[in-house]
Design a protein that fits this description.
Blueprint: E1 7-15, E2 18-25, H1 31-34, H2 44-59, E3 65-73, E4 84-94, E5 97-106, E6 109-118
Antiparallel strand pairs: 1-2, 2-4, 3-6, 4-5, 5-6
Domain ApeI dehydratase-like: 12-94
Pfam family, one: ApeI-like
Protein name: 3-hydroxyacyl-ACP dehydratase
Length: 119
Amino acid sequence: MLAGNFYTITTQTQDAGQVTTTIELNAAHPIFEGHFPEQPVVPGVCMMQIITELLRGALQQPVTLQKAGQMKFLNMIDPGKTPLVDVTISFKTEEAGQKVNATLKRDDTTFMKFQGIFK
């Protein structure tokens, strides 16, 4: 789990079918020593793990990614320059599982867009 170490939740609201969370990234986390020294960038796999963990918390049950229909990394996140990131996750129960749309952004900058199925 990345929560509590790689990032912390600063605010969170949940409505039916949507959770909106602001997280604060830990720029001192050891992962940034290798990704990349003097130019830290949040790895895409960490962005996916953040979505998974926040969805798990919203649904109050374990979830596993089944299908990534669309995963777009639009801008890099430098945790030193942008420590706060807004994560919006919309989810809907379907026969195949939870249909999920998620974005990671801050102000006018979108870092990632995701559409897929979790079960």
